[in-house]
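Example (one chain per record):
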Amino acid sequence: MKDYKKLKRALLIPVLLMGITGCSSYGAAKIQSLPSGAEVVNLEDDSLLGTTPVMIHWKNDREESKLITVRFHKPGYDDKVTAFWVNMRHSSRADAEKSPQAVKVELKPKK
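Predicted structure:
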């Protein structure tokens, strides 16, 4: 009976700590355009994510997929909007970088 109580206590502490600190999940996307050098804008909040090619990271408190919608902008080319899912299944940013979601778009010259 003593061993059972010790085991129960040993298992309960990590579970409680997870509830207090939370578990973070990470996802990443490697975004490329042809030609490169396009601005990538997150349409959720109009923030500039970077210029292609670019690696973007997301952090979430739950392990679930996240829908990302972005606009590509490069002078002399038509803007292009695309959406993709990022899997938030990694336990660290470094792990997410090892297998990022590949996003590639081809921009068309303005007529």
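Caption: The longest strand covers residues 25-34.
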